[in-house]
């Protein structure tokens, strides 16, 4: 269990200066001291079509998000988007949620200035805390341990929309995000980067690798150090990251890649605050900006985490392939937060002090057998597998009686100490899944995909305050079925049905354990990929329903029953790729009608909270030619529609439009770039709660200037 006496550990400026000073020098030394005789053709194990590659420009040909064996993306009968390596390089996102900002169906950064987790919704369902995977293995938040991934160590991000019960077991109805880590390449490369930006944020990063002469062993080292802040004046945004990869490929049929990383973060929690005229009487005036842009020195979010694992593949013959992915991760979290919790009176803001000291770990392994065969004129791929995950969180949570701050003279000029513990427990969740998926491609262009999975989940909670231990066992059978039809002219319509579930810990008034919440989705869509063009257009309509949702027990107060239901219906449009040889684009639009269809909370037929009805975005990137060759100009616009702050629909959150810009110039081995998000420094509320509980501000303008060199 984590020790409560852990203190704030901010990376020293001297360490950052040393890292920055050696970043480009180390890359240069790598280039100078390594003598390589290159073959005429460099062979890499993951080509541009591979689901492990970064894609081609803004498009990708294959994905593992819809089928574990990896199939052409156009043959996945589900909505899938890929944030490619080129998009990550052009837009330079700071967080995973930022990388998803131009993806249809995704509402990113919807908790504003909040670095605790990667927070986003997919098709209106909160997915960031439950639906993040890395290299095909679960990496969801456990309690207050976020297991965040830095985009610098990412090759690409696949987004699958809709329930994922067949492939991954428990998961939110909106879908999942699979982060593909950078991995070794069988070639020599090196890059160093220096950055400086808003809030005196300085960052240095390296990415380098090599292979032996026989091309059977390759390695990669990725590192980053950041020292800075954010819009909250006395907040931190510091990170130290080191990641490595080693690939051993003794033959063309056998490959093992070891991946590991170590990461320290010193970040800031979110800050809800009341709004004059909404949460309290406007006659008392708005909160001074100096107060709104600050926090109490008590606030702290420090994490230390690491992971180690491997991905192994062996082709027994041309038909049979064996794979196994395994990873163990740990994170230690120290979290202190003095947070606003509503108006205690006409002018008094209520603040509570909250603490978390916990250790979290995840062990995950997925073993797969893939069999490919030709059945007459049909090509068939069958994948069967067994996966197992154990997640443990062990720690304490403290909660204080509270502090009052007057809106007419607000100040954090008072001391705050750690409160007493109200939670002291260890929770262990074991999840086992047995699954099978089959993909059949017929000669007439039709492809059928089906899947079935049985999941078992066991949760054990050891409560050290009451000296009791409780267990809960759940199981679920989920299926999926879909089809695509390649019409031969670039058009590929698709249709699918998919199921999912999430577990619920606890019991009803009569002691009956809660059943899993179930989800199902019906979806139809159309993809269009012009022949010979690096361009993909898609459209889809969907209907997602969740049942067995917890809602108030109408006969027994302070208890719940499972008669709730929510339904999200809507449509999406997406365009990705090259419009011309020099102009690339990403366009997305989403419409979501999110309704609470069954509830005992007095909100039946209301719109679900924090779900914008409309989302739209457009990103354009133009590469100049001729005398301006090397110059690139990118820019984007993001629209987030109105939403409700609560299920009671008592408070509306206004819509907003944000603009982003990215300019870069490359010459020889150098590249200089300037990135700006929220270009016009739009002041907006990212989200709000019920009246009197305030809103959280969206992220303001952020500028980043970077210089990089490749060797």
Automatic annotation (TrEMBL):
Keywords: Cell outer membrane, Ion transport, Iron, Iron transport, Membrane, Receptor, Signal, TonB box, Transmembrane, Transmembrane beta strand, Transport. Transmembrane segments: none annotated. Residues 73-175 form the TonB-dependent receptor plug domain. This is Iron complex outermembrane receptor protein. Residues 1-31 form the signal peptide. GO terms for biological process: siderophore transport. It is a multi-pass membrane protein. Residues 278-679 form the TonB-dependent receptor-like beta-barrel domain. It comes from Tritonibacter scottomollicae. GO terms for cellular component: cell outer membrane. InterPro entries: Beta-barrel_TonB, Beta-barrel_TonB_sf, Plug_dom, Plug_dom_sf, TonB-dep_rcpt-like, TonB_sidphr_rcpt. Belongs to the TonB-dependent receptor family. The lineage of its organism: Bacteria, Pseudomonadati, Pseudomonadota, Alphaproteobacteria, Rhodobacterales. One of its GO terms (molecular function) is signaling receptor activity. It is found in: Cell outer membrane.
């Amino acid at each position: 269990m984590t020790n409560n006496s852990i203190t704030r550990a901010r990376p020293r400026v001297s360490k950052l200066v040393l890292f920055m000073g050696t970043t480009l020098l180390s890359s240069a030394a790598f280039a100078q001291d390594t003598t390589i005789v290159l073959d005429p053709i460099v062979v890499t194990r993951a080509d541009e079509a591979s689901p492990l590659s970064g894609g081609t420009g803004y498009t990708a040909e294959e994905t593992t998000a819809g089928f574990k064996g990896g199939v052409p993306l156009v043959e996945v009968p589900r909505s899938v988007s890929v944030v490619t390596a080129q998009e990550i390089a052009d837009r330079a996102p700071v967080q995973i949620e930022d990388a998803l900002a131009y993806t249809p169906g995704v509402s990113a950064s919807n908790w504003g200035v909040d670095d605790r987790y990667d927070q986003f919704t997919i098709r209106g369902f909160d997915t960031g805390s439950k639906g993040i995977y890395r290299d095909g293995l679960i990496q969801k938040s456990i309690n207050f341990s976020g297991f965040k991934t830095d985009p610098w160590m990412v090759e690409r991000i696949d987004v699958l929309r809709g329930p994922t019960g067949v492939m991954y077991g428990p998961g939110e109805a909106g879908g999942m995000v699979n982060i593909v880590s950078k991995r070794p390449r069988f070639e020599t490369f090196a890059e160093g980067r220096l950055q400086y930006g808003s809030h005196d944020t300085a960052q240095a990063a390296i990415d380098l690798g090599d292979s032996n002469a026989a091309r059977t062993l390759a390695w990669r080292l990725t590192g980053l150090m950041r020292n800075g802040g954010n819009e909250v004046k006395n907040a931190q945004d510091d990170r130290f990251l080191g990641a490595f990869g080693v690939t051993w490929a003794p033959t063309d049929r056998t490959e093992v890649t070891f991946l590991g990383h170590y990461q320290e973060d010193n970040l800031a929690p979110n800050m809800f605050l009341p709004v004059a005229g909404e949460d309290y009487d406007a006659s008392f005036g708005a909160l001074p900006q100096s107060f709104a842009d600050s926090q109490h020195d008590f606030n702290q979010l420090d994490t230390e985490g690491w992971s180690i694992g491997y991905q192994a593949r062996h082709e027994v013959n041309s038909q049979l392939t064996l794979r196994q992915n395994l990873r163990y991760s740990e994170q230690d979290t120290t979290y202190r937060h003095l947070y606003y919790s509503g108006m205690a009176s006409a002018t008094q803001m209520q603040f509570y002090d909250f603490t978390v000291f916990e250790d979290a770990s995840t062990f995950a392994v997925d073993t797969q057998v893939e069999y490919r065969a030709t059945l007459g004129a049909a090509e068939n791929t069958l994948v069967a597998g067994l996966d197992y995950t154990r997640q443990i969180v062990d720690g304490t949570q403290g909660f204080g009686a509270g502090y009052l701050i007057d809106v007419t003279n607000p100040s954090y000029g008072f001391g705050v100490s750690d409160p007493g513990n109200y939670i002291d427990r260890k929770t262990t969740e074991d999840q086992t899944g047995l699954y099978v998926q089959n993909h059949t491609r017929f000669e007439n262009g039709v492809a059928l995909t089906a899947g079935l999975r049985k999941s078992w989940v066991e949760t054990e909670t050891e409560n050290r305050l009451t000296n009791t231990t409780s267990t809960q066992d759940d199981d679920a059978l989920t299926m999926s079925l879909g089809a695509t039809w390649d019409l031969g002219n670039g058009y590929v319509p698709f249709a699918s049905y998919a199921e999912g579930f999430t577990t619920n810990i606890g019991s009803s008034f009569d002691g009956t354990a809660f059943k899993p919440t179930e989800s199902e989705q019906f979806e139809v869509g159309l993809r269009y990929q012009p022949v010979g063009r690096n361009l993909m257009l898609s459209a889809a309509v969907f209907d997602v329903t969740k049942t067995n949702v917890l809602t108030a027990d109408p006969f027994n107060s302070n208890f719940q029953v499972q008669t709730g239901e929510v339904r999200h219906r809507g449509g999406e449009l997406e365009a990705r790729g090259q419009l011309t040889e020099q102009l690339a684009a990403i366009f997305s639009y989403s419409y979501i009608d999110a309704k609470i269809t069954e509830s005992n909370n007095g909100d039946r037929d209301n719109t679900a909270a924090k779900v914008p009805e409309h989302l739209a975005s457009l990103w354009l990137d133009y590469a100049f030619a001729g005398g301006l060759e090397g110059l690139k100009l990118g820019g984007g616009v993001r629209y987030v529609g109105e939403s409700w702050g609560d299920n009671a629909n008592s408070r509306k959150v206004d819509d907003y439009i944000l603009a982003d810009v990215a300019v870069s110039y490359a010459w020889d081995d150098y590249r200089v770039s300037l990135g700006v998000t929220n270009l016009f420094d739009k002041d907006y509320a990212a989200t709000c709660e019920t009246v009197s509980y305030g809103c959280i501000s969206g992220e303001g303008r952020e500028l980043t200037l970077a210089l990089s060199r490749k060797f």
